[in-house]
Design brief:
The protein is α+β, with helices and mostly antiparallel strands. The chain has one domain. The chain contains four helices and five strands. The radius of gyration is 15 Å and the shape is globular.
Length: 121
Amino acid sequence: MEEARADKPRQATEAQLYELAAACQGRYAELVLVLGLAGLRWGEMAGLQAGDRVWVPGRGLRLQRAMLASGGFGELFVDTLKNKRARTVPLVDELIPMVDRWAGEKVNGAWLFHAPWWTAQ
C-alpha cells in the first residue's frame, strides 16, 4: 500500500462529500455538491454568472473568471482563472436542478451563486 504523503492532495470519497453537504445548513449545502461533483475551485464557483450556463453539447458551466479575496482585508475582486484559460465543465444530472434553482430569473451578468455580502471590486 502506498504511504500517505503530506504534499500529495487527498480527495474526499463520494460518501464523505454527501456527509459534508448534509452537515451544512440551508441552500448553501448545495454548493458543497456543486464544488465536489463538478470539480470546481471555490473562486471558480464564486465567479460564475447566470450567463455561464451552457446547453450544447450537454448541460455545463463555462468557467471564464474567478472571484478572489485580497490578502489584506479580504476584499473581493474578479480575476482570470488560475490557468488563464476558459473551460467548460459538464454538469452531472443531480446538479442541473440545483444550478437552475440558483439561476432562477437572473440576468446573464448576475452572479450565479450570490451571497448578500459579495461585492466585487
